[in-house]
Each structure stands twice: as C-alpha cells, then as structure tokens.
Amino acid sequence: MRYKLVRVLCLAALFAAFAALFTVGAGANEPYVAESDVYCTARGDADGDRKITPADARAVLRSVLLLEELPEKTEALCDLDGDKGLGTGDARKVLRMAVGLESRPAHKDQKTVTTQEATCYEQGISAHICAYCGEYYNFGVIPERPHTAIGWQVEREPTCAKAGVKRQYCKYCGIQINEEKIPATPHIYGPMQFVSSTPDCTRPQEIYRVCVNCGKRENGIRPVTEHTWSWVTVLAPTCTELGKQAQVCAVCGMKSGETQNTFSLGGHIPSGWIVVKYPTRTEEGLQRIICTRCGEVLEEEILPKKQ
Ligand SMILES: [Zn+2]
Ligand SMILES: [Zn+2]
Ligand SMILES: [Zn+2]
Ligand SMILES: [Zn+2]
Ligand SMILES: [Zn+2]
C-alpha cells in the first residue's frame, strides 16, 4: 500500500517536471529531430518509432515504475547512463533529448562495410554499421579501381607490307588500355633475278628479287671475285743473270706488284776455237771462243801472219 503511494507521488512529480520542460522547450526550441547519419536512432527509443519524443520518456518512466514492461533489448537501448538497468535518470535523459536539451547519443561502431563496390569507372561507398540501430552511417568513398585488362585482341593482322595492331580493353568498362604494333611478317621472295652477267674480278653482278605477296623489289649485288694470279716472265734469265717474274691477273691483266727472281742459266757454254779471220801473208788472223747460247766472246786470240 505504502509502496504504491510512493510510486504515485513519484509519477506525479515527474509528470510535473515533464510538463515544465515541455512548456519551456516548445517556444524557442523545436523538438529535436534525429539525424541518423550523426545520431543513433535507437538509443532512448522506447516505442520503436525511430523518433525520440516525450512518449519515449514516459514509456521508460512507466517501466521504472513497473507500470509497463519493455522488451529486454529496448531496455538496453534506453539505458543511457550505462548503469545496467533503467532508472529515473534514463527517463530524464530521454525527455531532455526529446525536447532538444541534450544531444542524442552517437552510434556505436560495429563494423565497416562496403555498401557499393568501387569499379574502374565509379567510386564505391563504405559505411559503418551501428551496433544499436543497425543503420549505416559515416559514409565514405572507396577510390576507383584500376582497369582490368583482358587478353590482347588483334585489330589488324600484320602482312609483309604493313605492321598489324593489337589492343587491350578493360574487362569491366571496355575502355582501351593498351595498343601495340605487331611486327610485319617477312616478305616471301621469288627466285633471284640477274640484271648483269656473272661477277668477275673487275665488276660485280647486280641482282634483285621480288616478294610474291606485295611485289616489293629487293636489290642486291654479288661482289667482285678475287683476281686469278699467275706468274709471268718479264725478264728472261741469261747465262749469268737471274730472270724476273711478275704476278699478273690472268683475267684482267692487273699486276699485283709482287715480283720474284728466277734461276740463271748457270754460266756460259763455251764453243771450241772458232776462226773469225784467217791470217794471210800480210795480215794477222783472229780466233775466238764464244758462248754457244748467248754468243758472248769468252776468249780471243790473234793468229800470226802466214810465212
Ligand atoms: Zn545507431
Ligand atoms: Zn575499366
Ligand atoms: Zn611482301
Ligand atoms: Zn683480275
Ligand atoms: Zn752464254
């Protein structure tokens, strides 16, 4: 009986304070409107309408006075002073929040999630989830991702006349990321054609060949050949002197400048005495020994006059 009386008195006193606060608040201060991006919409919300109004304070107070039973979870959300139970202090806080005299509590960070994945063409969005109200808040930007290249695509096949082109595109947005040349293929040449006759030691041979695909002409040259050297006698040997040979190209007649000595004939070949002039009674005669090869006089002798 006594307990009930205390309870009724308490209730009356609180309702009076309640009304006073409300009268003061209604003029200058608009009722507080929760912004879920900044404040938690669940703390102090005893009736679950996501708004804090005097009705929430009343519900908390009624729970304190055992006139109403709130779900356990709601009780926890309304325990604003953190003393592990509902009391008149919590009801007062809710009322002050409802009339804008006190800020609503902030969200309690549970985890950070990605609400929208970033792509290569659009930024993503991250958010925190509140452990109390389960709402997203504190949104953030996730930077765009780099493009993701898919394999090379050949845009133009190379030929022997022109290089090809290949490109890489992004798998997700299709934008072109890379471009590279594909080297031209080798020409396919037909048989060698000859402009002039076979090369020798004096002139090269002009040649060419033509690509059977694109007609490109490639000119070439087969270089001059080596001279064909042989030794040619330029000074014949004599009985006493060495001979001389020079190196000469058998094809074009050019001299290399190289020379060499050859053997000598190994000395004169003497004849017997040969009478050049017979002596007479008035004149002396003459006989000689000469070389039978070169004719050089080797010895000479006067023959006396005949008697
Ligand atoms: Zn919250
Ligand atoms: Zn992309
Ligand atoms: Zn070609
Ligand atoms: Zn030559
Ligand atoms: Zn001789």
Explain the overall architecture.
By secondary structure, the chain is α+β, with helices and mostly antiparallel strands. The chain has six domains: 2-106, no CATH class; 111-142, no CATH class; 153-182, no CATH class; 193-222, no CATH class; 229-261, no CATH class; 274-303, no CATH class. Helix content is 18%, strand content 29%. It contains four helices and 15 strands. The protein has helices at 2-28, 54-64, 72-78, 88-98, and strands spanning 109-116, 124-130, 136-142, 153-156, 164-169, 176-182, 193-194, 205-210, 217-222, 229-235, 244-249, 255-261, 274-277, 285-290, 297-303. A three-stranded antiparallel β-sheet has the order 1-2-3, with no helix packed on it. Mean pLDDT is 87; it is low at 8-13 and 15-34. Bound molecules: zinc ion (5 copies). One zinc ion binds at residues 239, 268, 291, 293-294, 296.
SSE topology sketch:
Elements: H1 2-28, H2 54-64, H3 72-78, H4 88-98, E1 109-116, E2 124-130, E3 136-142, E4 153-156, E5 164-169, E6 176-182, E7 193-194, E8 205-210, E9 217-222, E10 229-235, E11 244-249, E12 255-261, E13 274-277, E14 285-290, E15 297-303
Helix pairs in contact: 2-4
This protein binds zinc ion (5 copies).
One zinc ion binds near residues 201, 249, 251 and 254.
